[in-house]
Description:
The complex is a heterodimer. In chain A, about 35% of the residues lie in helices and about 35% in strands. By secondary structure, chain A is α/β, with parallel strands linked by helices. In chain A, strands 1-2-3-4-5 form a 5-stranded mixed beta sheet, with helices on one face. The termini of chain B are far apart. Chain B folds into 4 domains: about 1-75; about 80-285, no CATH class; about 295-455, GAF domain (Beta-Lactamase), CATH 3.30.450; about 475-700, 4-Layer Sandwich (Phosphatase 2c, domain 1). Chain B has a 5-stranded antiparallel beta sheet with strand order 2-1-5-4-3, sandwiched between helices. In chain B, strands 6-15-14-11-12 form a 5-stranded antiparallel beta sheet. In chain B, strands 7-8-9-10-13 form a 5-stranded antiparallel beta sheet, with helices on one face. Chain B has helices spanning about 5-10, 15-40, 50-75, 80-110, 110-115, 120-150, 150-180, 185-210, 220-245, 245-255, 260-285, 295-310, 315-330, 355-365, 365-375, 385-390, 430-475, 525-540, 545-560, 615-620, 640-645, 655-665, 670-685, and strands spanning about 335-340, 350, 380, 400-410, 410-420, 485-490, 500-505, 510-520, 570-575, 580-585, 590-595, 600-605, 625-630, 635-640, 695-700. The chains are: A alpha/beta, B alpha+beta. The interface of A and B includes residues 60, 97 and 101 of A.
Amino acid sequence: MEKNNFEAIVKESENxxxxxxxxxxxxxxxxxxxxxxxxxxxxKNFNIEIDFKNLDYISSAGFGVFMEFIExxxxxxxxxxxxxxxxxxxxxxxxxxxxLLFKIQTLEE
Amino acid sequence: MLNQExxxxxxxxxxxxxxxIIISFIVKLIGDFGLYYYFGPxxxxxxxxxKFITTAILATLILGYFIVILKPKVQAYDSTFxxxxxxxxxxxxxxxxxxxxxxxxxxxxxxxxxDYLISLDLISQIFGWFYLILGFITAWYFFQxxxxxxxxxxxxxIQISKIAFLIIFLNIFVVRLLNYFxxxxxxxxxxxxxxxxFFIITPFFSFKICQNxxxxxxxxxxxxxxxxxxxxxxxxxxFFTITSxxxxxxxxxxxxxxxNLYIFLLFVVINLITxxxxxxxxxxxxxxxxxxxxxxxxxxxxxxxxxxxDSNVTDLSELHCMFLESLVRVISVDFAWIELxxxxxxxxxxxxxxxxxxxxxxxxxxxxxxxxxxxxxxxxTAATLEQIGFSRKYPGYRMSLIVIPIYDGKxxxxxxxxxxxxxYAFSLDExxxxxxxxxxxxxxxxxxRLMQEAIEKERYEFELNLAKVxxxxxxxxxxxQIENYSFAGISIPAHELGGDxxxxxxxxxxxxxxxxxxxxxxxxSAALYMSQLKGIIVSLASTVDxxxxxxxxxxxxxxxxxxxxxxVTLSAISIDNNNGDFSFVRAGHSPLLVKNSEGINILKPKxxxxxxxxxxxxxxxxxxxxxxxxxxxxxxxxTDGLDELKNISGEELGxxxxxxxxNGLNPTTADEIIExxxxxxxxxxxxxxxxxxxxxxxxxxxxxxx
Lengths: 109, 706
């Protein structure tokens, strides 16, 4: 993964925090997203939306980030919603059975 | 005295103050001139009232102006007293040279001036003001130097000179004035005696005050010569001025402003002379200390280096303590310690000699102190607590500090703190020696670190090889031979250690089952989980009789024993009987490809990856698919390293590609299938490295009906 440029742009609005991720989410970049979500949880923002629109790649370490926080978020009456997911990444979620664990909104094309 | 704010509130700003001075000076001169013009030359007591008012106003304004411009200058003193002091000395010298020049000019051209100007009195008054200002400046500098270096002598001097000034001004402005109007002879001569008394004793005190100047030990050669030259010149000029014929002229020009005002100047100059005389003497003597330190320090340095080399120390913290010990053998200190930035590392090497540890601890907790220690990239010294930032009113302790940052390469790893409980206690020589020690030490640290790394690398490589060997044992070298079936599998880790795994177990000791798994994440951590997985599977296998139960139990154990973000995908394929019937469960793993006469079937039963959820959610979503292979059919399992394999242009191999190429294959052994795929992989990636672990596992059913 020679281009591991990953970015997580956080936009806080009143009821929901939107984190738009782009690039390669893998073992090298997972900590960036991890930090971004952790920060929101520390701020007691439990309604989090992850925008997958510009995400090119996700590895198992990337999936791990969502696993790490989903429990805590739900315990606090919040949710982690994954939106604008493209077909390919959606298929990966299905393959892992993770589509059963998250609310996923697929990108309309 | 008025402070800056009060003065500003009266006069608005500096410019206004300056213009007020100039205006009142001009008014005064015009007034003097006017009086002279209309009434002719007349004696002092005839225009006493005018003189008194104008002089008082001017003196107040000028004094105020000096406070305004000098005070901020003096407050900035603390940190670099030594340099500022020498600069002040220079300024003072320049003023004195100018005044000497003026004096000579005034005396020699008196006649010439008298011919051209109406009144020399008026002109010489301007010179008088200059002398007076000079007196102010001298007194001002004097008090500030002393104030910065407070000690018993300076306090006494300040008290005495305050009284002396009071007497002098009382004598000039009150007693002698009253004397014009009343018969005050007795009282006046009494005050005069007191004045003389103070004139005699104050020089003794001003002579004594720089006896305690510890900072004089800190000066270098250049500073020393500058001090010697400047102080001796000031002494000579001062002495020359008050003893020469010119003195009368100076006296006269000041007296034109106000009678007897010259006494103030005389007082200041005499004290300055004695002070500078002592300073000169003290500076001259200061260099005689510690010549042997250098020799001692070099031998100590050698001793330390040899010890490090001989003992082969690789533990850095031990080295730090040894260094401190060496250092305090050369430079005596009252306290010293080492601190490292690394959290959780406490070093027990501290030295407390003539100071209570609690006291040092007390200062050490303070923000000023911490800032001082942490925010210096080179050796940092503070000669007093004030220089660190503590207010002068602080408990009254004295402390000189040296902070030596410890570097490992470019990274700062800690600090050494040395201290004495005295102001200005470290000499420049000592600081240079410490510097040499520190430089030497940073080289030693780097060497030690390199040595440590070399040793660790060897150890790491050894351990890595060991891990590789262990991992090879985890993944079966060859799969067992079972009649009518042919098995083959391969796992290629992307790095030294991989997170992929395949295995062959008997469920309930009877049902042959093949497993393929992929631990999330990469490298060492994945490999560790993988070996854990192997252990769990082996111990579980005998307790279950179908792959679904195996996966459910496995999931529960993994759920309880792994981090939330770690999960495992796994497929289990059990051979149900000898007729080509199989059971297949998939926990989030890549699909199973089944090749039969009709082509490739992609089997993807429902199933969530292991270690993420447990209970109903997991079990209800875990499907079992039964499938049947005819002779010659095969099934093929893989990890995502295969379908996500990328070529040089970034294209993925993909599931379609894999199934299409397998479709045309008619193998006789399972090994053939693996070899075929390896060739395909090599073609596709064309020399590129693989980035993810890649594992393939295949079962060929070749039952021959005899």
